[in-house]
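Run non-specific serine/threonine protein kinase through structure prediction, thanks.
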Amino acid sequence: MTPNQTLNGRYKIIRPVGEGGMASVYLAHDLILDRDVAVKLVRFDMQDDASAVRRFQREALSATELVHPNIVSVYDIGEEHGMNYLVMEYVEGKDLKRYIKDEFPLPLPQVVNLMGQILCGVQAAHRHGIIHRDLKPQNVLIDKHGNAKITDFGIAIANQQSSFTRTNTVIGSVQYLSPEQVRGHVATQQSDIYSLGIILFEMLTGKVPFEGETAVSIAIKHYQDQLPLVTDFNHQIPQALENVVLKATAKNPTDRYKNVAEMALDLKTTLSPQRAQESKFVEDSLTEHTIVLDQKAINRQLDEPDSEQTRSIKMQVNEKLKSIKKNHQPAAKTEEMHRPKHRHPLRRRAAFMAFAILAFILGILIAFKLSSPQMVRVPNLHGLTQNQATTKLSKENLGVGKITKVADDKTGYNKVVKTLPENGKAVQEGIKVNVVISKGPNSFDVDNYVGSDYPSTKRQLEAKGFTIKKKEVVTNRFDNNRIISQDVVAGQVVVPRLTTITFTIAK
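Sure, done. The structure for non-specific serine/threonine protein kinase is below.
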């Protein structure tokens, strides 16, 4: 997208304001309602995935129902020339990631206040049955008045299928991803709560709890490693506030808060003197339950068509599982019947062993998922014929996707106007690039605007490319600002960018 380009004759692009793993964001102006908006264009390398686009459209439509002061409002969704886009409230400010970096350390009352606002927004979404799935500081905007607003409800689901295949974009999200999402399980309210706990950790410490060079290494830490204590970073943090982090980020979803409202209620009193002597929260599941490896759940991670590599990995996983079951399960059952209650260290060692084995298997699975195609850049096809464009794309191991023809007075007939993704964008080898081809100058049948409101007519026609002028006449026959006559006859076919219409209006 370029400045002054207009989407569907309504949203005039002003400038880009950001780019993420799934979308590019632009500041735009709504020509109908005369307000600034944010337009988010979904990543173009998703456009050929019909199921992903349908999920995006369904969830984004649901997100338009979310009206809450702590949620960025979604005004409109649409599609033009193969581009799926969202039109949202424009928030003037910065995202929470940047806010933490610029303002750290944040005063504890401010941390509690901001997190309280975030929890209110997520709670409203959960009441509507919408799970965010990708909560992170980059998806929380702080406006110029210090209010928190959550964005990107409904977008994460569209990317769920490919979240572990784009190494460059997943690391930012996997730092906040729950252990069950790492394993490919369906996200629940407790998954959002885990992500909220990680966000709270970062607000208190200025750091994420787990870091690594790859998404795999970070994901395994979320599943296997205990969260660092926030009090190790700052001894002034009350135990009650640390407990909120620990409970929200429990490895087992059943040990987390039952819902966001419960977490918000607990957070609200964390700085109260009455909770100054609170004991440290300890997750029950790690010491009281034996972890069972679920072979079906792991196999679901490999539900793609079986290549030689897939079959090989499945065989390794299945053999490993058979070995574990053969060597450990019967003994575990027998020992469970006779083991005295006080022998907790042995139980903890067994749990740790199970974790280590599961982490090994998980590493194999995710490493396989991450063996994605090489990245290439979309070549510049502007001005080429369709055949020339096809040849140039094939040299980059890219295919031709949807062909769209548009009116264009600057590009020759049947020549490429642009590509989606745009030239220079990094994409995976093998994807299909949508191509927009010129069908010549735009033509337009002029309507009869006599009696219409001049300001609204002017906005609509200028959005289509017309130059509009006016003459004012004092008259009692028409209301003020009503069009009395026009110098271009109704029904005349013209090219908007080359046409000036002068209206005579009542004064």
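Residues 442-504 form a domain with the Trypsin Inhibitor V; Chain A fold (CATH 3.30.10.20).
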